[in-house]
Amino acid sequence: MIDFHSHILPGIDDGARDLAEALAIARAHVADGTRCVVATPHIYPGVFDNTPATIAAAHATLVAAIADEGIALEIQWAAEVRAGADVIDMLAQGTLPFLGQDGPWRHLLLELPDHQIPVGTDKLVAMLMRQHVKPVIAHPERNKGVMADVQKIKPLVDLGCLLQVTAGSVLGEFGSRAQHTAEQLIDQGWVHALASDAHRTTTRAPKIKPARTWLLARYGNTVADALTLSGPARICQPLVGQSGMAA
Ligand SMILES: [Fe+2]
């Protein structure tokens, strides 16, 4: 499996605090059945001021350590980018990291605030889509506005956004409301992929495998495969496919 949302890179956001913890998370990803992780540290101006340079440096450090340790895990990198006007600036400057590409569409892991969908998000998304950037909205089931009414995310779905639900959400780790919201979003057919959003090995550990088991029981093979295999592979091509590790 491919996991395209993980804060595994050491010391550059609120994920792995050092290399030892990053290696522990890498082992947890392997135990979770993942063969390729796309590391997605936050880019959140004023909070986590990451750039392609800071991310690539942390990535290189981790890749070398994973090789030294003999851990069978491929690591690529992109970012989880906070929605805001800076996104357009980064796109213009060529500093926006993408998860992958599908035809002309470049996939951007886009984070909304937890409390609401800000006014103007639809305009930001429309601007991105005009430039062939397709947002993959990170964990909409944890947004309080969407929890109150899943239809609030529909305008972004209608614009072409893909939705990524967090594995822990379907397992109830973010509460019953997030779990129920994840179910509602999947029921609507709006969710394209599950990812772990891993930050630690204790709380917020990688849990795609148990989430896949939950999906199989609740929805059956077709949905479980789409959300854990074909969906992530499509979102991450050719970033992952280039190295022959897809699916
Ligand atoms: Fe995240």
Query: What class would the helix/strand composition place it in?
Result: alpha/beta
Q: What fraction of the residues are assigned to beta strands by DSSP?
A: 15-25%
CATH-assigned fold name = TIM Barrel
- Which ions and ligands are bound to the chains? fe (ii) ion
Q: What is the CA-atom radius of gyration, in angstroms?
A: 17 Å
The low-confidence runs, each spanning 5 or more residues with pLDDT under 50, are 242-247
Written as H for each helix and E for each strand, in order along the chain, the element string is: EHEEHEEHEEHEHHEHHEHH
Beginning-to-end CA distance, first to last residue: 5 Å
| Mean pLDDT rating | 95
Question: What does this entry look like structurally?
Answer:
By secondary structure, the chain is α/β, with parallel strands linked by helices. It has one domain: Alpha-Beta Barrel (TIM Barrel). Strands 3, 5, 6, 7, 8, 9 and 10 form a seven-stranded mixed sheet that branches. It has a three-stranded parallel sheet with strand order 1-2-4. Helix 1 packs across helix 2. The longest helix is centred in the N-terminal third of the chain and has 18 residues. The chain is globular, with a radius of gyration of 17 Å. The C terminus is likely disordered. Fe (ii) ion (FE2) binds next to loops.
